[in-house]
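We modelled the chain as a single entity of 173 amino acids. Its sequence is:
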Amino acid sequence: MDIEIRPTTAADAARIAALLADAFPEEDLRPLVAALLAEPRPVAHGLLAEGAGRAHGLVVLTPGSLAPSGREVGLLGPLCTAPSARGQGLGGALIRAALALAEARALTQVLVLGDPGYYARFGFRPELAVQPLQALREAWSDAWQACPASPSDAAAQSLILPEPWHDPALWSA
């Protein structure tokens, strides 16, 4: 199957909502993604993987910054693939596309809250210097990662992201 990864548009909203419902049947990320990608002024970049007229995957990269340094960074997520497209490398292709987008936008670091075993394949390492917006559950402490990770002696930084990310449930559910 030929898959194209391209920036999302307002016309993709219904397809993205259906993909998120299919990929995350127990978690409703549709309101978050809709708020991040809302036109005419989206606060994040969506990349959609499509082929044969269907949406097969999505990744969102939200630009943010760190305080007090002011460095520009990105938050990767949500990342999803349709159940029928899993195990074919599509998630990895979406991550690589998001990292390339981050580099093109001159973001100095990309952060993610996700499976360390999976994201390590793409250069993500545990992040100790950058504090997420909300306290994470203890079970998720290893899931907070960055590419590249801050040096172990880096000064503490706080992540600043757009309003849709401020819901505590996104960080501790």
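As a brief sanity check on the tokenised model: The chain is about 25% helix and 30% strand. The radius of gyration is 15 Å.
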